[in-house]
């Protein structure tokens, strides 16, 4: 017999931690609500026939955001055999609100009273026996982080599924509400399965639109139900949903006073930290300083030290010559030697060299996510983002995207407003991800040596582009309207666990190493082949190669941006496969892996292609343009179709082109002192055009959007 | 008075939540119900962090304006 056990509970109460513990997997755990946006399945350790399902966190069974719909649909439509309801013991009142709803569904429920370690530390005492009796289901104390109790809950849930134990809700609503629910129950009896009768009756009473759609009532029955609800509402002078909510909370309030003994109320450590970190004057400087330090340390300072070592010493002096001389020693053909040494070791090595740098960045990001600061940043940025038509919630996808754009794009699901969500997806990849880091480090090292600001500047440029896009897009017909009101639970601060941070860092970094060994490996081999052979399959100089001829064909497109050489053109295109290829392709073409950043030979090669201004333009274009195929796939999934995907890609590439054009054309005059030309004039016109799009007053024609615009103004 | 002008650090009680929509329902499921205690933890340009039922919730100005406390 195969059994399905679902983990359900409020956001950020430890479901995924328990899931990992029970199944031995390593799904991503973070300290903010909404980390899990999709359901995840795994087999219970020691029981091949038991599937554990980890669900996105929900506050109630009336979903508000997209990922909450996932949970509700799973619980209602796929009826798992048992629900393990995780309840955060340090926040019982709010957590039990969901519990009162879960026990009504008609599926057996067992409660894992989680975070007991925190509760005990605070000195609070919970009477588990009373709680269990009052709720009508078994309660097990757990501390998922420490692996305490998880196994026990799972075993008990397993037994419950086998013995088909039923959970009978013990709470009841006030007399008049119960009467109304009973009447509705009688009316709907023939339309719903009997074991879910109470759940449907309550939901019908609340006028739940999804349930109403699902059931096909006769007109007569519908009217009768409406009349019953209206009568009850008139009596209580409130709407039916609020009546139920209030009754649930009243019940829980009484229950909690009976079962919970609190040691000391008053300000918690988290509150004290929040007073400083989210202080109206200090919040932004603190945030800017934190991000500056993260990028400065991981790219400019510590990152450069380790990357120089891996690039120059490990790959340049040890691996590449060793492989080369070994190949010569075994008498490999010259072309094979070239393929392996220049193509694969050169290209993949150039990318791998930056892995330590990425690990340092991921280490910091993991700490930021784990300690609880991330959720505060959303709050801090909401004030600014709101002015530009975005909600602060958009900031979480952006922060995640500084690791990798794919999970960043997926994190947009926690944004409830559809327009906000689509817009966030469009701008998420403007934030430089880990794979773009090598390019920043390379250009920064070659053209702005010793400058600490290049990496942080690219990060803040990403934010600036997000803001500019927000302003411009909000004034178009596609996006006009108010951002949804910002409501978000803030997790407690805690000191990040070394194990969690390291695992998280490794999981993220591993993906890059795997990519280097697969996609980039193949791409580098291909680039090597194309750059060493002509169309007639003769080994030739790079200038006569297939790659050069393709590059020459595309290059004119990039000429106005200052990098119209065939090498830069093919490099840009190869970045679509994976952004690490931007450096990997250079590695193949110039053998960067064995060249130090201050090596005159390499500077010579690189400087022949670029000036400081065109290098900046090249970097900015590649940071902003269409992301890699993996991220494009994620955009398509989240946008739900090609139309919006193409709009997003078109906007990104268009903006990248315009910005790079302005940097090159205006920069050439200002920085390099070149003559003012037609290009400069066009660049200034474009700049004026962008400013116009940003500052024009937009008056929507349709009646519907008028309200949004007025509120915005 | 609306929550936006409540003094920070002082506990007050919710006596009404205006409006009747999705967001109100979401606020309720987060613990913002009539009779609940709320304390403002910090305030930033009208947006605020509020302590309600042992959790900290960040809400925007427009939301805070709809929550009446006494």
UniProtKB/TrEMBL annotation, chain A:
Pfam family, one: FeoB_C
PROSITE patterns: G_FEOB
Chief localization: membrane
Annotated FeoB-type G domain residues: 2-163
Transmembrane intervals: 281-298, 343-368, 388-411, 423-447, 453-473, 512-530, 606-632, 644-666, 672-695
Coiled coil region boundaries: none
Membrane topology: Multi-pass membrane protein
Localization annotation: Cell membrane
Gene3D superfamilies: 1.10.287.1770, P-loop containing nucleotide triphosphate hydrolases (3.40.50.300)
Keywords, ordered alphabetically: Cell membrane, GTP-binding, Ion transport, Iron, Iron transport, Membrane, Nucleotide-binding, Transmembrane, Transmembrane helix, Transport
CDD domains: FeoB (cd01879)
Family (UniProt): Belongs to the TRAFAC class TrmE-Era-EngA-EngB-Septin-like GTPase superfamily. FeoB GTPase (TC 9.A.8) family.
Database matches in PANTHER family: FE(2+) TRANSPORTER FEOB, FERROUS IRON TRANSPORT PROTEIN B
Function, in words: Probable transporter of a GTP-driven Fe(2+) uptake system.
The protein's name in its UniProt record: Ferrous iron transport protein B
Biological source species: Caproiciproducens faecalis
TrEMBL record, chain B:
UniProt-listed SMART domains: FeoA (SM00899)
Statement: the UniProt record of this protein carries the keyword RNA-binding: no
Domain Ferrous iron transporter FeoA-like residues, every copy: 1-70
Key words of the record: Iron
PANTHER family, per the entry: FEOA FAMILY PROTEIN, SSR2333 PROTEIN
Protein name per its UniProtKB record: Ferrous iron transport protein A
């Amino acid at each position: 017999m195969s059994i399905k056990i679902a983990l359900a509970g409020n956001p950020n109460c430890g479901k995924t931690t328990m899931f990992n513990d029970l199944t031995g997997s390593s799904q991503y755990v973070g300290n903010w609500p909404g980390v899990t946006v999709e359901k995840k399945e795994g087999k219970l350790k020691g029981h091949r026939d038991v599937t554990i399902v980890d669900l996105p966190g929900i506050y109630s069974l009336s979903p508000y955001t997209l990922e909450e719909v996932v949970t509700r649909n799973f619980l209602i439509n796929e009826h798992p055999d048992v629900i393990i309801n995780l309840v955060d013991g340090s926040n019982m009142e709010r957590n039990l609100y969901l519990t009162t709803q879960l026990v009504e569904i008609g599926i057996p429920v067992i409660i894992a009273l989680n975070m007991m370690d925190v509760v005990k530390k605070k000195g609070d005492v919970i009477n588990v026996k009373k709680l269990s009796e009052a709720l009508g289901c078994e309660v097990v104390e757990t501390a998922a982080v420490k692996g305490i109790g998880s196994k026990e809950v799972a075993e008990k849930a397993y037994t419950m599924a086998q013995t088909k134990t039923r959970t009978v809700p013990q709470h009841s609503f006030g007399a008049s509400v119960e009467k109304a629910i009973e009447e509705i129950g009688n009316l709907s009896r023939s339309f719903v399965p009997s074991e879910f009768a109470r759940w449907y009756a309550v939901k019908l009473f609340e006028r739940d639109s999804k349930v109403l759609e699902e059931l096909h009532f006769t007109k007569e029955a519908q009217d009768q139900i409406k009349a019953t609800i209206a009568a009850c509402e008139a009596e209580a002078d409130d709407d039916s949903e609020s009546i139920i909510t209030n009754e649930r909370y009243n019940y829980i309030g009484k229950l909690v006073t009976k079962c919970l003994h609190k040691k000391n109320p008053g300000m918690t450590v988290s509150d004290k930290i929040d007073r400083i970190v989210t202080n109206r004057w200090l919040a932004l400087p603190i945030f800017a300083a934190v991000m500056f330090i993260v990028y400065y340390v991981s790219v400019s300072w510590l990152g450069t030290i380790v990357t120089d070592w891996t690039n120059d010493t490990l790959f340049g002096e040890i691996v590449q010559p060793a492989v080369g001389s070994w190949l010569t020693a075994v008498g490999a053909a010259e072309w094979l030697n070239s393929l392996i040494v220049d193509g694969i070791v050169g290209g993949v090595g150039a990318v791998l060299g930056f892995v330590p740098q990425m690990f340092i960045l991921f280490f910091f990001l993991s700490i930021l996510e784990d300690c609880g600061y991330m959720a505060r940043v959303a709050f801090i940025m909401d004030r600014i983002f709101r002015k530009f038509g975005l909600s602060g919630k958009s900031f979480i996808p952006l922060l995640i995207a500084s690791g990798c754009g794919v999970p960043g794009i997926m994190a947009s699901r926690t944004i409830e407003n559809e327009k906000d969500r689509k817009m966030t997806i469009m701008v998420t990849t403007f934030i430089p991800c880990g794979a773009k880091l090598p390019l920043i480090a390379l250009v920064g090292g070659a053209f702005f040596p010793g400058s600490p600001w290049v990496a942080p500047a690219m990060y803040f440029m990403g934010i600036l582009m997000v803001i500019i896009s927000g302003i411009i897009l909000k004034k178009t017909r596609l996006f006009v309207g108010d951002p949804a009101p910002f409501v978000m639970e803030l997790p407690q601060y805690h000191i990040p666990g070394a194990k969690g941070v390291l695992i998280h860092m490794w999981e993220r970094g591993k993906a890059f190493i795997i990519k280097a060994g697969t996609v980039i490996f193949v791409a580098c081999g291909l680039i090597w082949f194309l750059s060493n052979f002509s169309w007639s399959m003769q080994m030739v100089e790079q200038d006569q190669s297939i790659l050069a001829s393709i590059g020459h064909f595309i290059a004119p497109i990039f000429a106005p941006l200052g990098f119209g050489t065939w090498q830069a053109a093919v490099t840009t295109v190869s970045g679509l496969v994976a952004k690490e290829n931007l450096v990997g392709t250079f590695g193949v073409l110039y053998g960067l892996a064995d060249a130090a950043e201050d090596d005159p030979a390499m500077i010579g090669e690189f400087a022949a292609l670029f000036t400081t201004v065109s290098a900046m333009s090249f970097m900015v274009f590649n940071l902003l343009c269409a992301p890699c195929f993996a991220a494009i796939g994620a955009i398509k999934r989240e946008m739900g179709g090609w139309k919006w995907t193409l709009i997003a890609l078109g906007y990104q590439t268009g903006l990248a082109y315009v910005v790079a054009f302005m940097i090159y054309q205006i920069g050439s005059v200002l920085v390099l002192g070149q003559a003012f030309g037609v290009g400069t004039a066009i660049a200034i016109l474009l700049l004026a055009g962008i400013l116009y799009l940003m500052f024009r007053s937009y008056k929507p024609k349709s009646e519907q959007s008028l309200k949004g615009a007025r509120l915005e103004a | 008075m609306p929550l936006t002008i409540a003094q920070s650090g002082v506990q007050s009680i919710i006596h009404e939540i205006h409006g009747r929509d999705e967001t109100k329902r979401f606020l309720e499921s987060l613990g913002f119900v009539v009779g609940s205690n709320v304390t403002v933890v910090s305030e930033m340009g009208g947006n605020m962090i509020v302590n309600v039922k042992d959790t900290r919730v960040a809400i925007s100005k427009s939301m805070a304006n709809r929550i009446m406390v006494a």
